[in-house]
Fold:
Amino acid sequence: MLKKNLFILVYCLGSYAAQAQKIKTEVLVTGRENWAAALQSAHSAVKTIFVYSPGSFPLGQINVNLSSGITAELLKKANGNIGAAHSDVIIQKWLDSTKNLTLIQVQQALVPTSSGSGWQLRLDDGRTIKARVSIMSKVVASSPILIDYTQNLYRTSLVSGIFWQHENSTATFLNIQDFLDPEAENAVFVAVPEIQAAQAAGAIGAYAAFFKTKTNLSNLKRIQGELLGYKSALVPLADVVPADSSWRAIQNLSLMGVLKPVFKAGKLYFNPRQEVQVEEVKQPIKDLFYKAQIWFDDNSSGAMTLAKTISLVCYVGNKSEASVRALLEKKWKTDFKNEGSLDYAKPMSRAAFSIIVNDYLKPADVTIDKTGRITR
Structure:
């Protein structure tokens, strides 16, 4: 009887020990340089484990990249003082206080291996981490792509504003293909060693884990929306910052090419105070919305006034002009405080036009394929 009880005790302890050796998570992030990926994945409400070795947290080209998202938040937390020692303290505290994020420090860098449809990482103490998705650094970094509005690929952007020395420009972007490898299922590779890229990788990994799907089935629009929600710019505009109340609307319209920025001295400028002309938005909006073709047949030129803008969004979006006018009159002084007094005959600024079109037509929701071509 004693032997039998002893056997049961040993068996139970052995089973418990075996279970204790395995740690399950949704997303596994490895590499100290990918700290922003761990933050974004956890912010996206996904259980995340970040395994990293000693050293400073890399900041990439933070002094020359356009800042948004986690980069901008770090600069804000550091009050502009981005020295390595100061930044390390801030980042470590940030990681420590983030919900859904578990930190594991190791003595040397470890590389995860594929395991079924997921990934695993064996720690030096014998424990094994099992994850649905793995985020790690890319062996050979991608080169940023210069934004070209004569093509459609810019619509697929997940990262923007990384300084590319070869072109002396921040008018750059990366798309989802830069982060995935068709031979590595449920793996996300940080395309370049920059904070913006790591943040995008975190959003890609979190999407696959949250919706229990594969990374190669990622929904681009959902991921773009998640990144914009955390103030990470998809279009590298040098003259519109995330703190601007019209930033999200301007990002959406410039992402879909409704209002195109201008390229000057290696940077993109939106010129938010510039007046909108019918001719510049006619074709882009017709491409996005079939019904707009009829409206533009009757309104083919001239300045895009507030009255015309309301008429356009109501016709295409099946809205009541009276209702839209009443709502705009209520919030004009708060949402459009830079536009002066409400005047229906006044030409619209690019910023105000962006807000109204984004609110009522939602152009960024129009579906595209992996090349950026509109599919509707």
Summary: Residues 2-18 have pLDDT under 50 and may be disordered. The longest strand covers residues 128-137. The chain is about 40% helix and 15% strand. The chain has two domains: 23-229, 247-365.
